[in-house]
Amino acid sequence: MSTILDVDKLDGVGFADNGKTELLLLFDHLDWEDGDEHLQLLQNKLNHYLLFIQKGQKELPRWQRKHMKKAERIVIQICFEYEPSKDCVDNLAMAQKKVEPLNVELRYVVYDPFTEPPTDGEQLMRRSIIPGKSSQ
Fold first, then answer.
1. Are 92 and 71 in contact (CB under 8 A)?
2. What confidence category does residue 12 fall into, taking pLDDT thresholds of 50, 70 and 90?
3. Alpha helix segments (H runs only) across 4-85
4. Domain ranges, residue 86
5. How many C-alpha atoms does 22 have within 13 Å on its Cβ side?
6. 122 lies in some domain
């Protein structure tokens, strides 16, 4: 599985909302001890995702591209293992403004990879980067 350290790879691709939403997953397992380096890695990875979107997803097999053409919007879901720093959240908010014209939404979720998935119907909390907009 690829992660934030594999700058030139997509970590995961999927669909939501009956195929109306293309979901690009970015897995970030790093802590925030060196915040500046971490932010640079995240920016580089996000830039690769945006290049992928702008090039029309040519890196994917034909069958996946066919499904993606049906999608009405694209969500880049960043899956953090550690709570992102304030600088990170601020930078993601600025990045969201820049990607809106591409019909792209940035979201993030903080998860613990060592715990069992919730069994009581509780879902992982997804946070929209867009101020005032909640995501599920």
1. no
2. confident
3. 35-54, 62-70
4. 12-113
5. 22
6. no
Tell me the whole-structure pTM to 2 decimals. 0.78
In angstroms, the CA 57 to CA 51 distance is 9
In a domain, 84, yes or no: yes
The Cα 74–Cα 11 span in angstroms is: 15
Q: What's the pLDDT tens digit per position in 68-123?
A: 566 788 899 999 999 999 999 999 999 999 999 888 999 998 887 666 554 433 34
6: in domain: no
How many other C-beta atoms are found inside a 10 Å radius of the C-beta of residue 27?
20
Q: Is residue 129 part of a domain?
A: no
Q: How many domains, the chain?
A: 1
Cβ proximity of 18 and 25 under 8 Å: no
Residues 107 and 86: beta-carbon distance below 8 Å = no
Q: Alpha-carbon distance 52 to 9, whole Å?
A: 10
